[in-house]
Write a structure and sequence with these properties.
The structure holds two protein chains of two kinds. In chain A, 76% of the residues lie in helices and 0% in strands. Chain A contains eleven helices and no strands. The two termini of chain A are 31 Å apart. Chain B has eight helices and 20 strands. The mean pLDDT of chain B is 90. Classes of the chains: A mainly alpha, B alpha+beta.
């Protein structure tokens, strides 16, 4: 049983490496010292107050949320179209098209960022939040397509035919039958593209005009050591928010899966 | 006879280079229970989906109740379908499933409720309306699918292998229920099945399909007793084939010499597909008799060796190698009182008559 012991140790070390740094965030966020180091000094909520009073941070947060929500909606809509098309129809060049949609998944973001920057400037557009949305949609769509494809493939095609056969139009069928049944996949897709967009740095850094996103803002603040504890506080908030979001989404996904008796409709947890 | 409810004329269907339907012509009568029977891949489901409007025809026309269905999509055809997978909407209750098509017609709510209740009662699911549809068993889902289609009072109900997913006992029960339901509602049913027994017991008429063509369209009895060719005969029930040489034909009769049986004159109606050099003699297992005892006699008699015995309780099936024939023929005998069952290697006297034999191309 010696190998079993080593395996457990390996798992333990692995988990510590993965999560311990994240646990440091809340610890130092409440630490009453401007220097981020042990030993801890005492409890304070001061760093959260600093966040509350920093206008630039609020703007960056608003920018990020706007971009992340727009990205989630656009990328998921595109994903629905692509996933439905590829799961329902066989067409010439299907594999090639789907392949090209998935390529941004493995494309280095720095290449995407630089090339988009060059193209956008050459076309004479100004950099804005929307140029960032463009870049984020590009890198999020493959994830959406992957999640939604599995949702659409799990959907019995005869359900749509039955709805059509019972007198509904194709559009009504889509809203009454298709969408409710792939909804868990849609939620997962929105969630993952929201999360990817929210913490994406490289593309946002290249394509941001005068308005920074949250990660870009945080990166900018790292130059000032005295700001570090307040960034820890910010990190703590983000950590709690994203965990809550994931848990809520997973709860709704499981509930709807139970309700429809469909086992896996494209969740990712 | 009333006008046909469905007229199929010259239907061709291609998928790329593959031709799924070859010049299909048929008329389906109003109010009949019609079956499309054939092995998998014969085009029976494609033909059903063509009638439903899910598949475009490459050539030819579908006419339903005198109306051309050219360019009429499935949602505007007077047909409804029961799918092989039942296609019950899992996110809706049983009642919501049944009400689905009525809502599309913008029927008032209280009228929908009445119609749904009637339809559920019709299929034996009274009081199940509020159940979650995914919690229903296979047989119950099937009934929901039936109610959901019948509630719309279609001119034709299309059933795509609806019984194939059920176990044997449930299937037999649903067969008789479907038949009763069809008589009660008086709607034309078109059933797709690969199960010849199912087609024979349920249908008024059957179209047997092979490789995209209708091989024969006839009543179950005619199909069994007068198959037009060897292929149909092989597919419907068991048929023994024996070499035959036809020496002479007057037009009304054919003089035949059948391997293992002997010489006989056969009336022309027992050669429904005509006679040429490729013809073989077909004999159903129950048209041959094992003669046992001194008193047993028959119009004609042949002899052979029992190769195998399959005892089914009420019936016994024998594989008998007739003298001069190298493959055995199957003979079925009812196990009536006092009839002894032969054993392997016994010599058997085989009784037969001119009426036992069909000439098939």
């Amino acid at each position: 049983m010696k190998s079993g012991k080593w395996f457990k140790l390996y798992i333990g070390v692995f988990l510590v490496f993965l999560y311990a740094p994240a646990l440091l965030l809340p610890i130092f966020a409440f630490n009453d010292s401007s220097i981020v180091s042990f030993p801890l000094k005492g409890f304070t909520l001061n760093w959260f107050n600093v966040l509350w009073e920093t206008e630039a941070l609020h703007t960056a947060t608003k920018n990020s949320l706007l971009i992340a929500v727009s990205t989630a909606i656009i990328a998921t809509s595109l994903g629905i179209l692509a996933a439905r098309a590829s799961s329902r129809y066989k067409f010439r060049g299907q594999k090639a098209v789907m392949g090209f949609i998935m390529i941004p998944l493995v494309l280095p973001e720095i290449i995407v960022g630089v090339s988009l920057l060059v193209v956008i400037l050459q076309m004479g557009f100004d950099l804005s939040l929307w140029t960032i949305v463009l870049g984020h949609v590009l890198i999020c769509t493959p994830f959406c397509v992957a999640i939604l494809s599995s949702a659409f493939l799990n959907l019995d095609q005869s359900l749509e035919e039955a709805s059509f056969d019972l007198g509904r139009s194709k559009l009504a069928t889509f809203w009454l039958v298709t969408m409710p049944l792939v909804l868990p996949g849609v939620v997962s897709s929105m969630l993952i593209s929201f999360t990817i967009s929210l913490d994406e740095f490289i593309i946002a850094f290249f394509l941001a005009g005068t308005e920074p996103t949250l990660p870009v803002y945080i990166w900018g603040q790292l130059r000032f050591p005295q700001k570090l504890p307040s960034l820890m506080a910010l990190g703590t908030i983000l950590l709690i928010l994203s965990l809550t979001l994931l848990a809520t989404a997973e709860y709704f996904r499981r509930r709807s899966a139970r309700k429809t008796g469909i086992e896996d409709a494209g969740g990712f947890l | 006879m009333t006008d046909p409810i469905i007229r199929l004329s010259g239907i061709d269907k291609f998928y790329g280079d593959f031709q799924a339907l070859h010049d299909v012509n048929a008329e389906i009568r109003t109010g009949e229970f019609f079956s499309l029977l054939g092995p998998s891949g014969c085009g029976k489901t494609t033909l059903l989906r063509t009638i439903a409007g899910f598949e475009d025809v490459t050539a030819g026309h579908v006419e339903i109740a005198g109306q051309s269905m050219d360019n009429v999509p499935a949602n505007r055809r007077p047909t409804n379908m029961v799918f092989q997978s039942y296609a019950i909407f899992p996110h809706m209750s049983v009642a919501e499933n049944v009400a689905y098509g009525l809502k599309a017609r913008k029927m008032p709510k209280d009228q929908i409720a009445t119609e749904v209740a009637t339809a559920l009662k019709q299929v034996g699911l009274e009081g199940y309306g509020e159940r979650a549809s995914h919690a229903m068993s296979g047989g119950q889902r099937q009934r929901v699918a039936l109610a959901r289609a019948l509630v719309l009072k279609p001119k034709v109900l299309l059933l795509d292998e609806p019984l194939s997913a059920l176990d044997k006992k449930m299937r037999e029960q649903m067969q008789s229920e479907l038949r009763h339901l069809q008589r009660a509602v008086g709607i034309t049913f078109i059933l797709v099945t690969h199960d010849q027994e199912e087609a024979l017991t349920m249908s008024d008429r059957i179209a047997v399909m092979f490789e995209g063509r209708i091989g024969q369209l006839a009543s179950p009895q005619d199909l069994y007793r007068r198959p037009v060719n060897r292929k149909v005969a092989e597919f419907i029930g068991v048929m023994n084939f024996l070499d035959v040489s036809v020496s002479d034909g007057t037009g009304d009769t054919f003089d035949c010499d059948i391997a293992g049986l002997g010489k006989v004159t056969i009336p022309a109606e027992q050669a429904p597909g005509g006679v040429d050099a490729s013809v073989t003699a077909g004999v159903r297992p129950e048209m041959l008799t094992i003669l046992s005892g001194e008193n047993a006699h028959s119009e004609r008699e042949a002899s052979g060796i029992v190769e195998d015995v399959y005892y089914y309780g009420d019936m016994t099936y024998y594989d008998v190698k007739l003298d001069g024939v190298d493959h055995p023929v199957t003979i079925s005998m009812r196990n009536t009182a006092g009839r002894s069952v032969l054993s392997r290697q016994d010599r058997a006297r085989v009784g037969w008559g001119a009426e036992s034999v069909l000439l098939l191309k």
